[in-house]
């Protein structure tokens, strides 16, 4: 896909040196990357952290779709199988009435890929779960819960059939990342109670 110069925001190396935060603000407002020019040639593209993480997540999802195009993972019943293939979303549901939610979770979250706690929370809220980020220390609380229990529990806001739906995000903090709020999702369990 070839982009015309006017279809995307642009800036110069000089502007990046002068005020990099202004360029990040430009990317945030335009909701896309900002092409950085050096002597009338594109030198690179600047993205916000959220945009970059979203691109990585979408890339991982697309790779997963390509590798699993002929193999659909369908799991139901008790969560006893520990041998899910790497980088495939492993969502175990104890109820057939949660099929739509399982499909949505498979689309929004990918196992084996680093994701920020903030991004995880935003995606879960978008799916109808109650946020875990309460107040200033919300991300820290999420990571503490993950460290202490090995999982982060979410509760679905609406109650289908009058039952409470709990999502358990099983994972660990990403030790390879330089950022403290990165985690790797291993599995996702859905329970109705």
From TrEMBL:
Tree of life domain: Bacteria
Coiled-coil stretches noted in the UniProt entry, renumbered to this chain: 45-72
UniProt keyword terms in alphabetical order: Coiled coil
Family membership noted in the UniProt record: Belongs to the phD/YefM antitoxin family.
Protein name: Prevent-host-death protein
């Amino acid at each position: 896909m070839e982009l015309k110069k006017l279809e995307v925001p642009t800036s110069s190396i000089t502007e990046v040196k002068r005020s990099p935060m202004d360029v990040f603000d430009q990317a945030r407002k335009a909701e896309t990357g900002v092409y950085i020019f050096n002597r009338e040639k594109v030198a690179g593209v600047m993205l916000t952290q959220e945009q970059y993480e979203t691109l990585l997540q979408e890339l991982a999802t697309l790779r997963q779709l390509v590798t699993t195009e002929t193999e659909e993972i369908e799991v139901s019943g008790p969560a006893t199988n520990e041998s899910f293939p790497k980088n495939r979303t492993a969502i175990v549901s104890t109820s057939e009435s949660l099929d739509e939610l399982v499909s949505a979770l498979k689309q929004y979250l990918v196992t084996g890929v680093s994701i920020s706690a903030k991004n995880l929370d935003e995606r879960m809220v978008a799916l109808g779960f109650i946020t875990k980020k309460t107040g200033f220390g919300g991300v820290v609380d999420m990571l503490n819960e993950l460290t202490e229990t090995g999982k982060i529990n979410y509760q679905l806001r609406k109650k289908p059939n009058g039952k409470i739906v709990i999502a358990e995000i099983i994972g660990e903090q990403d030790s390879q990342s330089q950022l403290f709020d990165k985690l790797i999702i291993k599995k996702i369990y859905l329970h109705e109670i």
